C-alpha cells in the first residue's frame, strides 16, 4: 500500500534555528497538507497545498512557516526561527481528491 | 467556529467489552466525517469515513460508526474490543468547501485490559 514518508522521525533543534521537515507524498496525489499535534492536544491543520501554491492556511501558519514542493516529489515545511512552542509532532498528508487522506508517520520536533 | 468534540478523554475496557466513543461536531452545513486511529508510535490510520448515503458506516477491524444528522453526532462503535485495539481514536470533520481540510477532535485514548 502506498505510503506518505516523512523524515526525520525526530528532530531536536535550538530555539531560533531554522528547521526543514520533509515529506514524500504518494506519487499520484494532488493535494498536500501539514498538520501538527502538540503533546496532549488535538491535531491541528496548518496548511494545504495544491497546484504549486498554498490553497488554505490556518492562523497558526504565520510568517515563520513556509512550504515548498521543490522537485515534484518532496513537500517541505520550513520553520524559519523556531520557538519552544513549535515543539510538536508534525504530520504530512496527501490526497488524490479534496478528501480522503493518507497521513505520514510524523516528525517529532523538539525545540530546546 | 467549527469544532469537533470528543467527550471521553480516556476509556478503559476489558477485552470483549463493547465500545462506543462519542463525537459531536458543530453545525456547518454539508460535512464529511472520519474516524482515525493512532496506535502507539505510529501514524494516523483511517478507520472509516462517511460522505453520504447509508448513515451506518462499516470500517476496518470491525469498527462501525453512525451518522445522526439531527444530533450532529458520529459515534464510533465496536461490539467486542481486543487488547490490540489499544490506541488513540480521533474523530475528524471536513466542512464542505473547506478545501478538504480536517478539523480534529482532541482524541480518546482507549486502553483495553487483557
What's the arrangement of secondary structure elements?
The complex is a heterodimer of chains A (112) and B (114).
Chain A: E1 5-7, E2 10-13, E3 19-24, E4 31-37, E5 43-50, E6 53-57, E7 65-68, E8 75-79, E9 88-95, E10 102-103, E11 107-111
Parallel strand pairs in A: 2-11
Antiparallel strand pairs in A: 1-3, 3-8, 4-5, 4-9, 5-6, 7-8, 9-10, 9-11
Chain B: E1 4-5, E2 10-14, E3 19-21, E4 24-25, E5 31-38, E6 44-50, E7 56-58, E8 64-68, E9 73-78, E10 87-95, E11 103-104, E12 108-113
Structure explained in plain terms:
In chain A, 0% of the residues lie in helices and 51% in strands. Chain A is mainly β and 112 residues long. In chain A, the strands form two sheets. In chain A, strands 2, 4, 5, 6, 9, 10 and 11 form a seven-stranded mixed sheet that branches. Chain A has a four-stranded antiparallel sheet with strand order 1-3-8-7, with no helix packed on it. Chain A is globular, with a radius of gyration of 13 Å. Chain B is globular and about 40 Å long. Classes of the chains: A mainly beta (112), B mainly beta (114). Chain A binds chain B through residues 4, 31, 33, 35, 41-45, 48, 50, 55-56, 91, 95, 97-106, and chain B through 32, 36, 42-46, 49, 51, 90, 92, 94, 98-107.
